[in-house]
Amino acid sequence: KNIFKFFSNLKFSIAILILIAIIISFGSFIEQDETIVFYKNNYSSINPIFGFIDYNFILNLGLNHIYTTWWFVFFLIIFGFSLFSCTITRQFPLLTNSKKYFFKNKNISLLPLFTKTKNYYYLNEFLIIKLNTIFFYIYQKKNLIYSYKGLLGRISPILVHISLICILIGSFFGAFQEFKAQEVIAKGEIFHIQNIIKIGSLSKINSVNIRVNDFWTQYKKKNINQFYSNLSILDNLGNEISNKTISVNNPLKYKNIDFYQSDWNLIGIRTKLKNNTNIKEYSFFNVKKDKKIWITWINLDNKIYSLLFDQLEESLFIYDENGNFIKKQYLKDKTNPLLLELLTSTGILIKSDLSIPILYFGFGLLIITTLLSCIPYNQIWISSTKKSIWIGSKTNRGFLNLELEFENFLR
Length: 411
Prior knowledge:
By secondary structure, the chain is α+β, with helices and mostly antiparallel strands. The protein has 10 helices and 20 strands. The longest helix is centred in the N-terminal third of the chain and has 27 residues, at 70-96.
């Protein structure tokens, strides 16, 4: 009991919550799950941030993977146990012992609102009828009447605690179960999940066969508006199980694995001369790492040409071997003896996180119960003797509304 009492202390819970918020703030500006070289390059020990935050500080404390460190998980467990203790020792007893508590001898004159009136014939019965008309639940024991309404406002703090515990469980489970992978696959190829970016210690990667049937782009006002990839899930015999055309924010879902359209690339070009059956393929080279600009060189009729592509606009700039601009060539232009076909690849982001339904449930319940907690919980006591009747009332919020309701009740 003493342990539950200690952990249910409001000041203790707030202190743990503030500490967790401070730790999370470190994770918001310190990049997570990067390589050691990244931290050495960006958090040099020669010029540390605030005089002490360098790569040694980050790596030694595990700030490069805050959400899976043992001490962060420890604080989450402590905070969850604090919510559980408060619910068990404070919230539930108010409900389970409500009738026993409310029918104890209560000095009604100590309530925020109370009045005393002379006991008339059938006054008790008249007050009960009036309480019923304003939707109060009524209990009577001997000469004491207890009534209430707005019980949801009383129960909602318990549900708020339950929703927070669900969020904590989901966050803990997601940190150790989530995995991410990134695959860049040419059109027509079959791939498996191999290039893992992040994997939790409890993650399990299912064996899945995926085929990229097609990839294309949608243009709007001469700019790329959307990317599309048509994917098929195959069984071990190559039979199609599922098929979907994915785009950004429109993934393919299969056995708790989501396949997102995330990137694209040019890997080569096919060329041939008109009336010539010989087809040649040339590889692309990226001009700048962070730019969608490619260059390649082709040999046609013993002449070297440079081809420059920009943003997959279905056009290219052609230069001679001396770097002189010749012309701009559109891929749809079939009148030119040089026919071209771009060889593209699509970038697929693969994610699996079984904690998402738990988190959605927790946040949804938190929103609903937070709104329900605004409902006032009003209570009215009536204690009668042969000569007098004492009437008292109180509420957990909205005292002005209760005062108006109490006055209307007494009229």
